[in-house]
Design brief:
With 98 residues, the chain is of the alpha+beta class. It has one domain: 2-Layer Sandwich (Alpha-Beta Plaits). The protein has helices at residues 19-34, 63-70, 73-85, and strands at 6-14, 39-46, 53-60, 86-95. The chain has a 4-stranded antiparallel beta sheet. Helix 1 packs antiparallel against helix 3 (73-85).
Length: 98
């Protein structure tokens, strides 16, 4: 049975010389996001084989909670400067089915 929970997996590849800036910017999202009422989990990971690659694995109660998160000023501030921080971005959303 399909769940109403939304899982988002966002993978970032830092632009040249932007690894620390990207990491700092992503880490700054964690505390306020975890305080959002619909946030179940929000965790940042860094690849072992590529220090420029970060993956944020996010889980929200439902689409409304994910939409609320997406509209927050702290996330929008990051989105506005992503073109200077990343060379590649891949964001996918999922619903749990089992």
């Amino acid at each position: 049975m399909k769940s109403s929970e939304i899982i988002c997996i966002a993978t970032f590849i830092a632009a040249a010389d932007q690894i620390e800036n990207l990491q700092h910017s992503l880490l700054a999202l964690i505390e306020p996001t975890r305080e959002e009422p619909g946030c179940i989990s929000y965790n940042l990971h860094q690849a072992h084989d590529n220090q420029a690659q970060f993956t944020m694995i996010e889980k929200f109660k439902d689409q409304a909670a994910f939409d609320f998160h997406s509209a927050q000023p702290y996330l929008q501030a990051l989105v506005a400067k992503l073109n200077t921080l990343v060379e590649h971005l891949d964001v996918k959303t999922f619903s749990a089915i089992a």
